[in-house]
Amino acid sequence: MYKHILLAVDGSENSVRAAKEAVKIASENSLIEMVYVGDFEKAKTEVLHAVSSESLLLERKRKVALVEEVLRVAGSNFKLTILHGTPGPIIVKYANEKQVDLVIIGSRGLNTLQEMVLGSVSHKVMKNVHCPALIVK
């Protein structure tokens, strides 16, 4: 049984699929912690276009609203944590520090060449967390 599940979310359809798998795996005693990382490279643009820090927070919450709805409808115990930095290393650091029991992350579906050149967040997380990890396609 997994008591603390870290669900990495970015607002994509892959995050929604990952949330559906998290619901299947979680028990009634599990906490699903949605972790959204404000990517430094994208955050500059977000901050420039935001009217205030409150509007920026609301925009980030809007991005994960579909994932939150999946968890709410399923009756899951969940919370949202917003972090800042480069997603792969930040998710790994947070998961290892919090000693989560399982990490679930969606895959963007990069082809082999793209993954070799660019690397993927899910691949970086999978290689470096100290707990089981599930990549959802």
TrEMBL record:
Pfam families: Usp. Residues 1-137 form the UspA domain. InterPro entries: Rossmann-like_a/b/a_fold (IPR014729), Universal_stress_UspA (IPR006015), UspA (IPR006016). It comes from the Bacteria. Belongs to the universal stress protein A family. PANTHER family: STRESS RESPONSE PROTEIN NHAX, UNIVERSAL STRESS PROTEIN UP12. This is Universal stress protein. The lineage of its organism: Bacteria, Bacillati, Bacillota, Bacilli, Bacillales.
